[in-house]
Amino acid sequence: MSLAETIQNKLTQAFAPSHVEVACESHMHNVPEGAEMHFRVVLVSEEFSGVRKVQRHQKVYGVLADEMAGPIHALALHLFTAEEWQGQAPESPQCLGGSKS
Question: What does the alpha-carbon distance between residue 84 and residue 61 come to, in Å, rounded to a whole number?
Fold first, then answer.
C-alpha cells in the first residue's frame, strides 16, 4: 500500500468525509525519484463544522502523527465542511527550490 493510500484510509476512518483527495506531489519537488514525501489533501467533512482552521489542521496532524514523524515532509491541507466546499481546492504552486527552479 502506498503512503497516499495509507493517508487516505486513515483520514476516511477518522473523518467520514463526503469528499477526500490525497495526491503525492513529491514529483514537483527536488527529491529522489519515486519518493513519497510531499502530499496535498482535500478533505470535506462535517467533523470540521464549527471548528477553526488551525484546529482542523491539528485534528488531521493528530490522525497522521506517525506519518508526520516519519516519511511526510510537507502536507498541504484544504479542509472544508460540506457547506464550505465549492467543488475544488487551490492547486499547489510549483516548487522553486533545488533543481526545479
Answer: 21
The pTM of the whole model exceeds 0.90: no
Give the torsion sign (CA, 38, 16, 59, 88): positive
Is residue 100 assigned to a domain?
no
Are 27 and 59 in contact, with CB atoms under 8 Å apart? no
Grouped pLDDT means (10 residues each) for the chain, 101 residues: 95 98 78 72 98 98 96 92 91 62 48
3-state helix, strand, coil in the chain (%, to 5): 40, 20, 45
Tell me, what amino acid is at 67? E
Separation of alpha carbons 36 and 48, rounded Å: 27
Establish if 92 belongs to a structural domain: no
Which CATH number characterizes residue 22's domain?
A: 3.30.300.90
